[in-house]
Amino acid sequence: MLDTQTAVLALLVAFAIALVARILAPRSSPPTPPTYGPRWLPPFVRGALAAYRLGKDEDQFLLGLRRDYRTAVWLPWPLSQTIVLESEAIRRVYQAPEKTLSFLPIRREMQGSAFGASPSLWQNKALMHGQVFPVHARGMSKTNLTAPLQRFVAVVRSRIDDLAARVDTAPSGSVTIKPAEWIVETYFEASLAGMFGSNVRDAKGISRDELWTAFCQFDKAFPIMAGGVVPSWLLNHVPDVVVGKRAQDLLASMFEAWIQDGLEGLDEGVVRDMAEIPLQSNLGANEAGKLIIADFWALQANAPYIGVQLLVFLLQAPESLRDDLLAEIDASLALAGALSDGNEPLTFPHLASTLPLLGSAITETLRLGTSTFSIRNVEQPFVLPTTAGEKHDAVVIPANTRLICATRLHHLSEDVWGGNGTAASAWDGRRFADGGEAKGEERGWRSRRARHVYGFGGGISRCEGQHFATAELKAFTSLFLSTFELELVSPVNKPTFGELYEPIELAGVDKPGFRPRRIPGRVGMGAYQFTDAANADLELTVRRRRRSQA
Ligand code: HEM
């Protein structure tokens, strides 16, 4: 029989062995994210189901993913990527360096798959990584975009003058315009002149309408060509792609002819620098033309549509916000002074320092008016923390796979944006405007939160055009609002309202708000664009602004 002392000793030894065994035991690595869809279906059916549901209703699909899978989920072929769903996990992705989660190989590949560059250009890693990307990044800095911004503002001023002349000669003193068309066209023309100069169409004799049509056709095909979901053997049979590639050819030949003409009208800048790279590598003017299709597309595919949304939200916002905004704009324009000797006073520093409330409204519009799938190649296994209450405290995304971030979910998160009596889904133009100290807010808290909006994407793939785009939006909106009194013709009681518009809540407004219905299927592509029917329906009454006598 064992005495008590021996028994205690045996227990202590057993405990010590168990402890050592536990310490020495190989740690199990976190599991990979779950796979989308019911277990009993084969993976490709689950993948196809995910693709179908994503295209049908992006928001509903994404919100369902977060409810069912929380941090991340693997979407099988044809999507073949992990989708990251939670805010903290997305932040970790954006913090990761190129060597862990890479983007440059994808950016290079897109030059071929979406913009039509030949393999001799896009597969040339030394040329792309050594010249194209760094030259582009340098060219897109604010200091190198001074002249493009001046040209942009000059075209905006002249289009506003033309509209004002129409208003002045109208017997009623007002005209009704289709704002979605007029605003998009204004941004299109002004930013084209800004970045490419005014003569880009001339060498090939392409009209404004032809260029606009080519852009729309190319842009429609872009998500299919760039998405990498449709296999290449099928791609050239998709009708939108056939039309889009024809438009791509037209754009390439227009840019080619212009480049051969010495880029008439553009003395310097990022577009000229980009065109020089293939020329100096003896790849020819057509290749150079294809390279700058990327700039042309990036310039036009987002900013005009944010411009329309911003105006639609502002014109439905509480009157007090609009009054404060007009006062801010008047002060900014007064400080800038008039155009003198062709010197444009609306410069980057001026626009950045004088329009904080407009800046807040723009950031808020980016929050609710975009959906971006920042994409990465996973170079090394990447661990993501999960949220409280999940079965495991981390998941690992395996190497040699792809992941995308669902920024739309972060933008709709009540945990991040809710509280303060304003729902995350509501548009609040003051959300990022400081001045809440009297309500106990920390100084600068609101403007600091603007960094957490991912309308321009994030991390190593963040939009290189963000400064130019923000300046465009500030310049256009302040000149437009300071010249005219604007009123949206309410579509609310039209029988087609439900079909053409979607509801949106606006902070401080009792009645339901609306915005034009977005194009379905254009998922994760940045700014929402609207259906043609909604664009054609939306109307705006424009009259001269009456300034109150001080
Ligand atoms: C409000 C307007 C704009 C929005 C919402 C926007 C949004 C975006 C987004 C979401 C991305 C991808 C980010 C990611 O994958 O993480 C992107 C990339 C890019 N954008 Fe913009 N953009 C805008 C305006 C512009 C303009 C005006 C230009 C050019 C002047 C431009 C040039 C680019 C370029 C060159 C890239 C690619 C950067 C890269 O591949 O690393 N963008 N933009």
UniProtKB/TrEMBL annotation:
Residues at which heme binds: C463
SUPFAM superfamilies according to UniProt: Cytochrome P450 (SSF48264)
Swiss-Prot/TrEMBL keywords: Heme, Iron, Metal-binding
Family: Belongs to the cytochrome P450 family.
Protein's organism: Rhodotorula diobovata
Cofactor field: heme
GO terms for MF: heme binding; iron ion binding; oxidoreductase activity, acting on paired donors, with incorporation or reduction of molecular oxygen; steroid hydroxylase activity
Short name of any one Pfam family annotated for the protein: p450
Residue ranges the record marks as coiled coil: none
Keyword Heme: yes
Name of the protein in its database record: Cytochrome P450
